[in-house]
TrEMBL record:
Family annotation (Pfam families): APH
Protein name per Swiss-Prot or TrEMBL: Phosphotransferase
Domain Aminoglycoside phosphotransferase: 86-206
Domain of life of the source: Bacteria
InterPro entries: Aminoglycoside_PTrfase (IPR002575), Kinase-like_dom_sf (IPR011009)
Organism: Actinomadura rugatobispora
Length: 215
């Protein structure tokens, strides 16, 4: 909900999600880095979490649109090597493991079917290897084009984080994939990893896991 105040336009958002406070903590970290809306207040009630944030202008969602890697890279450069805002956050790896092990996964994009068991088992093994690296840092967890907004002077901002700790390499993989248009996701992921300055092989491994988990 958008509201007009003496200090400009603000966005008031309410969520009943049990992870609402954790999402707000990640939102605050993104705000502090200048890649998310400014967070003015977070209020937790018995049934919901309310967040008051600045309104991004023009604030157009880039959902379904191809995005230049040169424009994406600065977001993830700022996130690189940043600590998670809390050691109490659930992990990205646990969420992905739950999707890979779910034999009746129903949360699927239109036109996609659950990955075959052998593919999911292979992806789970890759995920275990990824967990042994730096995997409990600041992570958006859902850096798809629907969660990227166009701001002033063409700057891009991230909104609606998942509320997990993880690895920015996962965000790089997902952002490259979900903003690819007609380009090959693996090639975009490699190039974005180079621009951000993170390990290309790690990003490619996350891409396999994300695709197999049908995120």
């Amino acid at each position: 909900m958008e509201v007009e105040t003496d200090h400009g336009y603000l966005v008031v958002r309410s969520t009943p999600d049990p992870l609402g406070m954790m999402q707000a903590e990640v939102s605050q970290s993104l705000s502090d880095l200048g890649i998310g809306p400014q967070i003015y207040e977070v209020v937790q009630t018995s049934v919901s979490v309310w967040t008051v944030a600045s309104r991004i202008f023009p604030g157009d969602s880039l959902h379904g649109r191809a995005i230049s890697l040169d424009r994406l890279a600065p977001i993830f450069q700022r996130m690189r090597d940043q600590n998670s805002p809390s050691n109490q956050l659930p992990t990205l790896a646990d969420w992905l493991h739950s999707r890979l092990s779910d034999e009746n996964l129903s949360d699927l994009a239109p036109g996609r079917a659950q990955a075959p068991f052998d593919e999911r088992r292979h992806a789970a093994a890759i995920l275990e290897d990824l967990e042994s690296g730096a995997s409990n840092l600041l992570c958006h967890g859902d850096a798809s084009s629907k969660n990227i907004l166009l701001g002033p002077d063409g700057q891009l901002f991230l909104i609606d984080p998942r509320g997990v700790s993880g690895d920015v390499c996962y965000d790089v993989a997902v952002a490259a994939w979900k903003t690819a248009g007609e380009e090959k996701p693996s090639a975009r992921a490699a190039e974005l990893a180079r621009l951000v300055g993170v390990d290309t092989e790690r990003v490619q491994a996350w891409l396999v896991v994300a695709d197999t988990a049908r995120v």
